[in-house]
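Exercise 7.
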Amino acid sequence: MYVIAVYDVGEKRVAKMLKLMRRYLNWIQNSVFEGEITEVKLKKLIYEARQIMNEQEDSLIIFKSREHRWLDKEIIGLERASTQNIL
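Solution. The predicted structure, written as tokens, is:
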């Protein structure tokens, strides 16, 4: 499946969450990540994120789609990190 994940966590937890998210998805902008991921890996990501988060203060939002092709992505301005593969 294809996901877009957005998080908002306290300053003390930002570095840990960033490191975790980069293990599973592609960074696109500040606290925004996207990429293909299996259901099992997504569940593991969520489990690990909950270990970092304070659920009373922080949030993680995950948008899911069966495939990347069902989403139209338009970038206006600077693209922070390209997810295109160069061959």
